[in-house]
Write a structure and sequence with these properties.
The protein has 15 helices and 25 strands. The chain has helices at residues 8-13, 119-136, 158-161, 170-195, 235-238, 265-273, 289-292, 348-369, 372-375, 410-422, 444-451, 477-480, 517-528, 542-557, 581-590; strands at residues 18-24, 58-62, 73-75, 96-98, 103-105, 110-111, 141-146, 204-207, 242-245, 303-307, 310-314, 318-322, 329-332, 387-392, 429-432, 458-460, 488-490, 497-501, 561-565, 595-600, 607-611, 614-618, 629-636, 639-646, 651-654. It has a six-stranded mixed β-sheet with strand order 16-15-14-23-24-25. A six-stranded mixed β-sheet has the order 17-18-19-20-22-21, covered by helices on one side. The two termini are 40 Å apart.
Length: 658
């Protein structure tokens, strides 16, 4: 454990909680002087990082594995037929030798009393008094009980092995027997919480850490229909059942098909207690409360894994896995949980999008490993953002059959998913960056009610496809989107910030009836360029440009920062950009001390550039793939932090001081 990491124990201890660790630690050595377990002693001194220097007040901890019965002993003579994976229980301590491990307390002292018999019971004999003392003094507590069972070597006491006497394999009898002993202790813990009267105010989490040990057919334990076992990043190695008992939040008997990881524990617990994060370094986990209460049904952020040169990325449906930077495999975990059919050859766009996310996540892990997160943390040291807002780009719904790159009907489902999640966030507003529909005025009737379920104020701006309606209805589009004008400002009463909504269709052809003067003027302007830009883009007219210049000047005079929202990109150069991007880029440069960022959609693949201290962020389109795409932007005095969901990447963008 690196010293700069923040543990749950440290954060809860700072907020008045008693903290206790019981069982396997495996996050550093526990002694610098004595030989112990895998790495303890002088040879492991550089890895010394016991739980008592990582936030735990009370400890009964081992560095790594121990036998699951008589945890400090091993028979002098090996049991015939075993290879160290199991053995018969030690009947007489005189016929045993030390296994080579120790339990350590919070003072760094080895503990030897009450260490015979079932290891799960030995651990619970320490955890229960810690919980009793905390409850009797009405002190909040955080207990981590990391059982050793059924890690090898598995040893079952006589009464537990006897429960499985009909199984011929003694290895399997030991395996199942030690699991039964563990289950007995979990039941003991639950009964104790009820007897103490604290069960209704305690969240209890339980899961395994990996799939079954050993080769299939040669070792007990099963991953069911899942591929792989322990040490594999296929589902059989990483997917395990998890249980939570949380009165008032998790309904009794509820089963969720929602992917989660132990990295979610920290954000869930801190959010429940209202404890802020100590800084703004990247975090992998999410608050699971919305999933447990049914507010969301789809995981908004992907989960990354890496082990022994293999990396994987998992969302609600798809999984990318591979050992290099190319030739990744892709599986649809909903249709093919056993990972039997590699979709990578025919789902190249999903592979490309998930590969980008995986590379970003891997780079973030490397930054954490090398301390860069702490050395170059942006934003810091601000405790809370000034405000947060949601961003969606290019929903582009239509009641039309899908094409290889456009999933029109699915867009409404992804919009609903994003709305459900954004409603769990504390947002000042949400903005959709244009192309709400793909075609047909009636399409608004499907997606507008979904978007209007947003609990925070929500805005639209105009995209080219929003005008893919009958000519007679084009003038009605802004009102149908609830816009006060085609371009306008709003503040949401946020001090020192101004938000400017722009119309990139003002000069162009798509937003105007073909027999209108505006259409003819737009076509003439388009054709006047040496290389005419595409019809599906547009530009801004002199009146709107003058208005924007005046708005930015007013913001400057008021000491405000501004965020500009447009459907079309402005920078970097590209075919999707506004026709008159050069003119507008010069205007933004004149106001670089005022403009924080230009945010847009239109280019569904997304893009980013920075010029003159202004950030130009092109958010990815929601429409294109079965992966969703949306974001939450946190605004700090010195940075914009963009947390992307689905295929939208994370970004931290430093801001110039005014």
């Amino acid at each position: 454990m690196k010293p700069g990491e923040h543990t749950l124990a440290e954060l809860l201890k700072e907020n008045g909680y008693r903290t206790g660790h019981f069982g396997k630690w495996h996050l550093g050595t526990l002694t610098k002087t004595e030989r112990d377990a895998n790495r303890g002693g002088k040879k492991g001194a550089k890895n010394f990082s016991p739980p008592w220097i990582n936030g735990f007040d009370t400890c009964f901890s081992t560095e790594s594995k121990v036998p699951t019965w008589d945890p400090l002993l091993v028979p002098k003579t090996p049991t015939p037929g075993n290879k160290g994976t199991w053995w018969n229980p030690v009947a007489d301590e005189a016929d045993a030798v030390p296994y080579g491990t120790r339990y350590w307390n919070e003072k760094g002292e080895p503990v030897t009393e009450n260490t015979r018999g079932d290891d799960s019971r030995v651990l619970m004999d320490r955890a229960v008094p810690f919980i009793r003392d905390s409850a009797s003094e009405k002190a909040p507590f955080f207990a981590v009980i990391w059982f050793h069972a059924p890690h090898l070597p598995v040893v079952a006491g006589p009464e537990y092995a006897a429960l499985y006497q009909d199984i011929a394999d003694p290895y399997a009898r030991s395996y199942y027997g030690c699991i039964t002993a563990l289950d007995e202790q979990v039941g003991r813990l639950r009964a104790e919480l009820r007897e103490l009267g604290v069960a209704d105010n305690t969240m209890l989490w339980f899961c395994s850490d990996n799939g079954p040990e050993g080769k299939e057919g040669q070792a007990p334990g099963s991953a069911g229909d899942f591929r792989g076992r322990k040490r594999s990043l296929y589902e059989g190695g990483v997917r395990v059942p998890a249980l939570v008992e949380w009165p008032g939040i998790a309904p009794v008997g509820q089963t969720l098909d929602f992917p989660a990881a132990t990295t979610d524990y920290l954000p869930t617990i801190l959010a429940t207690l209202g404890i802020p994060y100590p800084d703004k370094r990247p975090r992998d986990g999410i608050d699971l409360t919305p999933a447990l209460t049914g507010a969301i049904t789809t995981r908004p952020r992907m989960m990354g894994f890496q082990s022994a040169g293999v990396r994987s990325l998992v969302d609600q449906r798809f999984k990318l896995i591979g050992s290099g930077k190319k030739d990744f495999e892709l599986y649809d975990l909903l249709a093919d949980p056993g990972e039997t059919t590699d979709l990578a050859p025919r789902e190249k766009s999903i592979v490309a999008q998930m590969t980008e996310k995986l590379e970003n996540w891997t780079a973030s892990c490397k930054a954490s490993d090398t301390g860069q997160d702490e050395a170059a943390m942006v934003p810091a040291p601000d405790e809370k953002p000034l405000f947060r807002f949601g961003v969606i780009a290019d929903c582009q719904y239509a009641d039309a059959d899908a094409t290889p790159i456009r999933l029109y009907r699915l867009a409404s489902e992804k919009l609903a998913e994003s709305v459900d999640f954004l409603n769990t966030q504390d947002l000042a507003f949400t903005i959709h960056l244009g192309d709400f529909i793909d075609r047909d005025f009636i399409s608004f009737d499907t997606v507008a009610p979904i978007y209007d379920r947003l609990q925070a104020p929500h805005y639209h701006l105009l995209g080219n496809h929003d005008y893919s309606v009958d000519d007679a209805l084009k003038t009605k589009v802004p009102a149908r989107l609830g816009m006060p004008a085609r371009y306008h400002t709003f503040t949401e009463n946020i001090p020192k910030w101004r938000f400017i909504v722009l119309d990139g269709n003002e000069v162009g052809v798509l937003a105007h009836p073909k027999d209108s003067p505006e259409y003819k003027e737009g076509e003439a302007i388009r054709l006047s360029y040496p290389k005419p830009p595409p019809e599906w883009s547009g530009g801004m007219g002199p009146e709107q440009i003058a208005w924007l210049d005046a708005e930015l000047s007013a913001a400057r005079d008021a000491g405000e920062k501004a965020l500009l929202f447009c459907h079309y990109p402005l920078f970097p150069e590209g075919v999707h950009n506004l026709w008159n991007d050069t003119e507008l880029l010069a205007l933004v440069a004149r106001h670089k001390d005022t403009v924080a960022a230009w945010m847009n959609g239109h280019n569904h693949d997304g893009n980013y550039g920075a010029k003159d201290g202004v950030h130009f962020v092109n958010f990815k389109g929601m429409l294109d793939t079965r992966l969703n795409a949306y974001a939450v932007v946190e605004v700090y005095p010195n940075a914009l932090k963009i947390t992307g969901y689905g295929r939208e990447p994370d970004r931290v963008l430093p801001l110039l001081p005014r």
